[in-house]
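Researcher: Please predict.
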Amino acid sequence: MLTQAKHEIPGLLDEQIQQTKERIFQNIVECIEVEGFPTEANVNFKEANVTDFVLLIMLPMLAAFRRGTTHILYLQREREIIAKDTKTGGLQEFVGVDFVGVGQRKFVFVVEAKKSSAGKAKRQCLLALKDIGDNNDGGIVYGFVTTAEQWQVIRYDGTTFTQSDRFPVMFPGMGHEKERWMKEGAVIVDFIHMVLRSGGFTAKKVKMEETKGRGG
């Protein structure tokens, strides 16, 4: 999916991408130290913890993109997506907005953390992507399904859904295996950068959901 992406706008330089990966690595390691590893075996790990990890990954990317490009990004809380059939829209926990001109707002991505089965979470993500695509008058939209530990990217072009393989963004002991994380987990930075460059600033939206258990 990364190799097939079409870049509609300029993005970050390689050096900026590397710096962002370094920052996100440190964020994840510190969050694991404080909150514990995101696994069902940890009975104290709640939906709010998943939200913490998502935020610590997304914020450095948005900040870097904001500083490194001409697009002014803001992160808003609790924004509603309205489905055309009024059935699948809902209140989303995080919304990134690109402000263009005076009084014009174009959605860049939507982030939602929800406790549900993996199958249900993916179905909800697919429905949300379709709603976003329909309200977007076409174009490609992207979504993420995540447990914090495992991530998967979904792409909808208005007709067909495609998805990436699941990939780990964190693993036990990653604080001592930075090189491994840079080869494996840091791909999440490349995916988010891909989405931001894919025309997201022409009213594309991205849906992200949490699933229960590994994968999604």
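Model: The chain is about 35% helix and 25% strand.
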